[in-house]
Sequence to fold (298 residues):
Amino acid sequence: MAGAGLGTAFTSGLKKARGAKPPGISRDAVGVLVDTTLCIGCRKCEQACAERHKLPDRSFEDMTVLDRPRRPDEGAYTVVNKYHPDPGASESATFVKFQCMHCVDPACASACITGALSKQKSGPVTYDPNKCIGCRYCMVACPFEIPAYEYHRALVPKVRKCTLCFEYISKLPRDKGGLPACAQVCPMEVMTFGKRSNLLELARWKIKNNPGKYVDHIFGEHEVGGTSWLYLASHPFEKLGFPNLGAKAPPRLTESIQHAVFQGFLPPLALFGILGGFMWLTGRKKETNGKNRQEDDQ
Ligand code: SF4
Ligand code: SF4
Ligand code: SF4
Fold:
């Protein structure tokens, strides 16, 4: 019976694994295009994000923090870093704002066993704290090392990350605050919020019409299956703190491995058979030994 149960579980697992599909987003899914060539590193975006999301108070006047690379954490959904991709040049600093990339096929959501993280068809990857059990698989899975955990909160710690201001952009018109706070406040208009498909067109237009200004690469167009945040830069992205990632979405990669395991169903079954046989023989031996002892006693 156990064997049959295991077989059914494995077979249904195989069906599920084979049937898994990327979540897919609507043609109208939104995103943000970041033109890093315009950023002056003022940190106003960090401040606006912290204020909107009631993150812990901190100073946004201290520009020395830009001198060392930072990562978003549970108290800061976004950070701006300064890079010197061309140390020989007189004007060499490039500022880059980082946050959750809101991947098209997010590894965090795929790894989350309770569905606490999910990709909305409209673009954002959202988090439901009521479903989260604190396993932190999302933190391990994210190729950008974004989700942060509130280790300091003993009772109800949450995973924290940029929400793409979902709670605002999904409810309010743009002229009434229905924009990401960071994009709204930026004095240099570094960020353009809109449909991802339009942002890709805009990015291609900028590259084509500004020869020599940008590298011919839109970060996020293809990386990890595509991301809702897209970037333009004047230097190769690996010199600006971006990880060098392939185009395949991590969930597709892990599912390929799962498929390989499930397709090799026979070896585990054979293993269960051997173990089952071993247990039966052991049981028989114990039974026989018990009977022999009884006969010796008589
Ligand atoms: S507010 Fe705009 S210019 Fe200032 S650091 Fe943020 S992205 Fe750069
Ligand atoms: S960047 Fe990381 S946390 Fe954000 S959607 Fe992608 S996998 Fe999830
Ligand atoms: S989109 Fe919203 S949550 Fe994300 S970095 Fe900008 S202000 Fe913060």
Summary: The two ends are 37 Å apart (CA to CA). The mean pLDDT is 83. The beta strands are 30-35, 79-83, 94-98, 117-119, 125-127, 148-149, 159-160, 191-195, 229-232.
